[in-house]
Specification:
homodimer; alpha/beta; Alpha-Beta Plaits; Maf protein; 3 domains; six-stranded mixed β-sheet; globular; Putative competence-damage inducible protein (chains A, B); Competence-induced_CinA (chains A, B)
Chain lengths: ~400, ~400
């Protein structure tokens, strides 16, 4: 089966949004072995969408269309698909009732133009939407499989996982034979990493290996469409070469690993944040069930607030409140007052300006554990936003690394 | 002139990268008034790229192609374009020398496959690349204007600004006259908003009006390519209709507006966060210079930590630590201990599970100001991540709204 993706929305052509839907769907399709040959974005324009749809129908078996299912006049995906496939739109009572329920839950009356969202092409199937009023639609037309999905990623992503993927497996029994593993690294650049495994990459046939520069470090992906066991050997070779940089696999995220390890070791953590302003606490508590290991934290954004926390006079705080010894003191104090097994503290200058004597991008971190104190200075470059992102990631990795070296609580 | 964008690269179709190039180019083109009607992504495949190119040539005047200009065999954009336009590739000595210079600067010998990067179609013009070895190429073929640009954004973005934009202005003297304003709303859905201004949207000719559903609410964009003054009248009409929902314009973000208003009114704010885990503090401190108005905050993620903060016994904390009166108490206590003019507190259940008696998505917020206490219950739907996002946004808007009603300090 050949697949392609069409995104509908003038906002894409104006550059107001980036087409993350196409990326998400492509990743999922690559993973199950459904080849995607084209992405197209087209505006909210009937005749241009119809033209695009005609050429997709002529060359692809699976056509996934995102966007244009909203309640406004601009939203015309269903109308154009209905016309091109000659399947008139009909009111679907089930979805009509669902939309009504959504509005009554919000204690508002359904605006009349939302009725449009309950119309679906004759013979089509509804794909329910847990996060909005636009249902997805599946149409089988002369052996061509069309999926119409809502544009907002927070509606589309779960719908694709829950409704589209199972349907694709139904349609084609050969799907799902791709096996893939990802090794996640941190602390090494892409070209340095490639140098370490260049011979393996050059000689690859099956499994194939590629490197991907991601926000949380460089990933190495090993893929086969034959025997899953082939991955295991390559994985351990790559792993051995990159040992000190490897922190996770596949869907791992470092905040989840921290929470899991804390739970496993029956430990708890608290945070003191200056420059990151609560973002590290926020990342840790993103993980469901984190309340059993993350108890509390504080954001100290001024010199005075740091002095108050340390019960010391303002004169004892170094100017700007950015310094290694101060950061250690903050972590020590946190371990005491928050009664956690581990306490983490961070101070630093994100820019665009910095206190006297401190360079933009200078970050200090400290971790206090039962049997040791670790502190580290970092130097990051880039915009305020970039430096903040890098500092959060470095903090999480520092916590995770030290956590792994900790014995069980006892 | 009609334009379109083609991205070449199998990595796009595998979802390894997202097509930020198309967004960047689209934004720039929208700004100068060059209409982009299609984005297409196609893999590193000669015949499919040729097909795409043929249909682009049949419908567009300006075709901007990104990617496929690298030194490897996979990179075939120039080869395909040369064949389709019947303009054979020739070595360009100027660029050949430039590439050589780049390699000698790196103190390495130019790999032989890089010679490929000095080949350009006969009659084409070079667009120099400050950040890499792939030159851009401009071709005028029977009145069709083709731009071939490198794929990496850090090479493509500056090349587009420095080389492509000036060329586009040369080609079409009517470009560059677009004026645009954005009104940002919060607290109203897109269809309810559209109902309020439906007549204006329906009767639009110049300026044009469109609505955009963004993460921070629904935006209304008003655009003209004639007289800038035409925007002003429509802007104030739209503004009047949406009055209670309008919070910002153009590049405004609500956290920046909060920090600015706090500064203007000489006020300060502190935060107590349970469910959002520090994300509200993090958003406020994202703003450069926020330290003068955001002093400190705390993340209380357990019942015990809330009891400690309130200096009360654990039995006084409602089960789960999610409740309106508790939230008010936390804000009151924060105003006291952090000595800020305003204190904000939030408790709630993000899911996937919730404490007994509390529904997932229930959020309580409280603000304590000098002369009043405001508290509010919210009910959000969606995943843990969605509910968190919505809660953060609602919190910022609640703070901003109440801040605007505050008199100057002193």
């Amino acid at each position: 089966m050949k697949g392609e993706i069409i995104a509908v929305g003038t906002e894409l052509l104006l550059g107001d949004i980036v087409n993350t839907n196409a990326q998400f769907i492509s990743q999922k399709c690559a993973f199950i072995g459904l080849n995607i040959y084209y992405h197209t974005s087209v505006g909210d324009n009937s005749s241009r969408l119809a033209t695009v749809l005609h050429s997709s129908l002529s060359r692809s078996d699976v056509i996934i269309i995102t966007g244009g299912l909203g309640p406004t006049k601009d939203d015309l995906t269903k109308e154009v698909v209905a016309k091109v496939l000659n399947k008139p739109l009909k009111l679907n009572w089930q979805w009509y009732k669902t939309i009504n329920k959504i509005f009554s839950k919000r204690a508002t009356i359904m605006p009349s133009n939302n009725i449009k969202q309950a119309l679906i092409p004759k013979g089509a199937e509804i794909l329910t939407n847990k996060n909005g009023t636009a249902c997805g639609i599946y149409i089988n037309s002369h052996g061509k499989h069309l999926f119409l999905l809502p544009g907002p990623p927070r509606e589309m992503f779960p719908m694709f996982e829950d409704k589209v993927l199972p349907k694709l497996f139904e349609l084609e029994e050969n799907l799902g034979r791709i096996h893939s593993r990802v090794i996640k690294t941190y602390g090494i650049g892409e070209s340095a990493l490639v140098e370490k495994i260049d011979d393996i990459i050059t000689n690859q046939t099956d499994p194939t290996i590629c490197t991907l520069a991601k926000n949380d470090g460089i990933h190495v992906r090993i893929t086969t469409n034959t025997d899953q066991d082939k991955i295991t050997k390559t994985l351990s070779t790559v792993e051995m070469r990159l040992k000190e940089y490897v922190w996770g696999y596949d869907d791992d995220s470092v905040n989840q690993l921290i929470v899991k390890t804390l739970k496993d070791k029956k430990l708890s953590v608290s945070t003191v944040e200056s420059c990151t302003g609560g973002a590290i606490a926020s990342s840790l508590t993103d993980v469901p069930g984190s309340a059993s290991v993350y108890t509390e934290g504080t954001v100290l954004y001024t010199e005075q607030s740091k002095a108050n926390f340390l019960h010391c006079s303002l004169t004892e705080i170094p100017q700007g409140g950015i310094e290694e010894q101060l950061t250690i003191k903050l972590a020590k104090r946190a371990k005491e007052v928050f009664s956690t097994s581990i306490a983490f503290a961070i101070t630093g200058a994100l820019g665009p300006t910095a206190p006297k004597g401190v360079e933009v991008g200078t970050i200090f971190m400290a971790i206090v554990l039962d049997n040791k104190i670790v502190s580290k200075e970092f130097k990051f470059y880039g915009s305020r936003e970039n430096i903040k992102e890098k500092a959060i990631l470095a903090a999480l990795h520092l916590i995770y690394k030290n956590l792994n070296e900790e014995p069980l609580d006892g």
